[in-house]
Amino acid sequence: MNKNPFLLLGITDGSPQSQDIATTQLLLTGGLDFLYWRAPADSAGLTQLPTVFQPSILLPASQGSAVPASFRWHLKDADRWSATFADGLPFSTSIHSLSEWPRLAGQVELVLYSPLFPSISKPGYGPSSSLVVTAQEVSAIRQQHRALPLLIGLGGIQAENVALVRGAGFDGAALMGALWQVADAVDALRQIQEVLSR
To answer: Which residues form the signal peptide (predicted)?
Structure first.
């Protein structure tokens, strides 16, 4: 796993490349901190993934009991209001309004916020405000609240703008189109890491 405090999280897009176990291992050994695997674990051969990598995989489910113990539970925002937490708290969830972020303190460790930039994988989908305005809102929330989940930016992030995400006060960046809409996801991750190391 990446030891840099700025986390990098990949998100599968349903393509064969994004659900290839060998590519998953290369990305995780190459510095990707987490991979949000949007397909059911049993349908994708994830159980073939060596156990050392399994805690880096986030799996979506409406209940934690649906996620194998060695993986991490991602609770989709649409399921958040109906979920029960008798079997534990989710590791992560998603939001589309920063006002929801403080309300998730003590409930999740990671919050994915989107969109920051025009989407690579969803043409026509983009932010409602500029990154400058978003950065001001992130800063104001951090000043008002001490214990917050880590905030991961999502939406249109690639090598050309990932440093802006870090500069805007995010704890990490989620990558989808930047990994899967290129010829080599491992090389794309390396380029993003190079930008962040400057």
So the answer is: none
Phi, psi of 28 (to 5 degrees): -70, -35
pLDDT, one tens digit per residue, over 76-111 is 888 887 777 777 899 999 999 999 999 999 999 999
CB 33 within 8 A of CB 7: yes
Rg over alpha carbons for the chain, rounded to the nearest Å, is: 16
Q: Which pair of tokens denotes residue 172? A: 């990490």
- Return the CATH number of 7-197, one of 3.40.50.620, 3.30.300.160, 3.20.20.70, 3.40.50.720: 3.20.20.70
Contacts of 197 (CB under 8 A, 6+ apart): none
Predicted confidence band at 182 (pLDDT cuts at 50, 70, 90)?
very high
pLDDT tens-digit map of 101-153: 999 999 999 999 999 998 877 777 888 899 999 999 999 999 999 899 999 99
